[in-house]
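Quick one: structure tokens for this chain, please?
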Amino acid sequence: MDMNFDGLLIGVATFLIIGFFHPVVVKAEYYWGTKCWWVFLVLGIAGTLASLFIGDTFWSVICGVFAFSSFWTIKEVFEQRERVRKGWFPKNPKRNDYA
């Protein structure tokens, strides 16, 4: 009996990719505010294109997960701004755009 580990590996990779983006959201908002949303848009588009053109299903799925995690990060950066306004996360004292 052959075992297929692709599903398990995709699950682990998805977990790691999502886990990677959590601190990225906090740091990006802290240093650049919401102005950095376009970087995640570009990463999402690049991941989407890579997913479409990569022939191997495993790597295509990984690129798709990365792409949509990048798109989701756009929303999270704006929500992080609100979390900072509420005092749940520290403000960057060098920035004054929390009004």
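The CA atoms of residues 83 and 89 lie 6 Å apart.
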